[in-house]
C-alpha cells in the first residue's frame, strides 16, 4: 500500500484496491452471454419435442440456417439501407436536439416559448407521424430519415436539458467569480458537467432511432430490415421475421456499445460508483 493510500480513510482505500482488481471485461461479457445461450438451448429443446409448433416458433437452429442463407443473398443490402437511414436520421435529430436543448437549458425565456410545444410533440406515437410524412414528403428516403430524426430528437433533447438544469449552481457562481465569459463558462463548466446526461440522451436516441426505422420501413420501403420483417410476415415465414429481429438486436447492441465506449473514453476522469460485485 502506498503512503498516499495510507492517508485515505479505510473505505476509500478499500474502494481503490477493489477497483484495481475488478473482474476483467471478458468475464463480464461471458456472463452476459449466459442468459441468451440458455434461452436458445431451451427453445431448441421445446420446439424439437413438439411443445411449440415450428410454423409459429422455428427452432434456433432453423433460424441460424435462414440467417446463413440470407447472408449469402440480399441480407447485406437490407442492412446497408437500414444503417444509412439510421445514421443519417440520428445525426440530424441529435444535432438539432443539442442546439435546442442548449438554448432551452441556458435560457428561461426560450424554455417559456419552446418547452410546452416540445412536451406535446414528444407524446405523439411514432406511427402517427407516418401518414403525414407520406403526404408531405412521399415514399422516398426523405420521409424515412425525417421520421428517424424525430425519434432521435426527443430523448437527446430531454436528457440534455435535464443535465444542464441539474448542474450545481455553485459551480456556475465560481465561474462567474473567476470572470469566465459565457463561452468559457459553457466550455469549462457547463459542458463537462452535462456530459453524462448528454451520453445518456445519445444512447436513448440511438435506441429510438432503430425503433422508428422499423416503423418507417414496415410501411413504405423496398429494402431494409423493416421491409424484411414485412416480407416474412406476408410470406408466412417466421424464421425470416425472427432472423430480421436478431439482426436488428445485434446492430442496436453494436451501436449502443460504440456510444458506451465513447462515453467511457470522454468521462474517464469520473470516479463513480459502479455497483457491487457478488463477493461485496
TrEMBL record:
Where are the membrane-spanning stretches?
Answer: 33-51, 83-106, 118-139, 145-164, 208-229, 241-262
Any idea which UniProt keywords this protein has? Answer: Cell membrane, Membrane, Transmembrane, Transmembrane helix, Transport
Coiled coil ranges (UniProt) are: none
Q: Does the keyword Magnesium apply?
A: no
SUPFAM superfamilies documented for this protein: MetI-like
- Tell me where in this chain the ABC transmembrane type-1 domain is found: 99-265
Where it mainly occurs, coarsely classed, is membrane
The way this protein sits in the membrane is described as: Multi-pass membrane protein
One matching Pfam family: BPD_transp_1
Write down the InterPro entries for this protein, in alphabetical order: MetI-like (IPR000515), MetI-like_sf (IPR035906)
Where in the cell is the protein located? Cell membrane
- What is the protein name for this chain? ABC transporter permease
Report the source organism: Pseudomonas rustica
Amino acid at each position: 500500500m502506498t503512503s498516499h493510500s495510507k492517508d485515505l480513510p479505510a473505505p476509500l482505500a478499500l474502494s481503490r484496491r477493489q477497483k484495481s482488481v475488478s473482474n476483467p471485461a471478458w468475464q463480464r461479457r461471458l456472463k452476459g452471454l449466459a442468459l441468451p445461450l440458455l434461452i436458445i438451448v431451451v427453445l431448441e429443446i421445446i420446439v424439437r419435442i413438439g411443445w411449440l409448433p415450428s410454423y409459429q416458433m422455428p427452432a434456433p437452429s432453423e433460424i441460424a440456417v435462414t440467417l446463413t442463407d440470407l447472408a449469402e443473398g440480399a441480407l447485406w443490402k437490407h442492412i446497408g439501407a437500414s444503417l444509412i437511414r439510421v445514421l443519417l436520421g440520428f445525426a440530424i435529430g441529435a444535432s438539432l436536439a443539442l442546439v435546442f436543448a442548449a438554448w432551452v437549458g441556458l435560457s428561461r425565456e426560450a424554455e417559456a416559448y419552446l418547452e410546452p410545444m416540445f412536451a406535446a410533440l414528444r407524446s405523439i406515437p411514432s406511427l402517427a407521424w407516418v401518414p403525414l410524412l407520406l403526404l408531405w414528403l412521399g415514399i422516398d428516403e426523405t420521409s424515412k430519415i425525417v421520421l428517424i430524426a424525430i425519434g432521435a430528437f426527443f430523448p437527446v433533447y430531454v436528457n440534455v436539458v435535464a443535465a444542464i438544469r441539474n448542474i450545481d449552481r455553485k459551480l456556475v457562481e465560481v465561474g462567474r467569480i473567476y470572470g469566465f465569459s459565457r463561452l468559457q463558462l459553457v466550455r469549462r463548466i457547463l459542458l463537462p458537467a452535462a456530459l453524462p446526461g448528454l451520453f445518456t440522451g445519445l444512447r436513448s436516441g440511438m435506441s429510438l432511432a432503430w425503433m422508428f426505422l422499423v416503423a418507417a420501413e414496415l410501411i413504405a420501403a423496398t429494402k431494409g430490415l423493416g421491409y424484411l420483417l414485412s416480407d416474412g410476415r406476408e410470406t408466412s415465414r417466421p424464421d425470416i421475421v425472427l432472423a430480421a429481429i436478431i439482426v436488428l438486436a445485434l446492430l442496436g447492441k453494436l451501436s449502443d456499445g460504440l456510444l458506451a465506449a465513447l462515453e467511457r473514453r470522454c468521462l474517464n476522469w469520473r470516479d463513480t460508483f459502479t455497483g457491487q460485485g457478488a463477493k461485496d
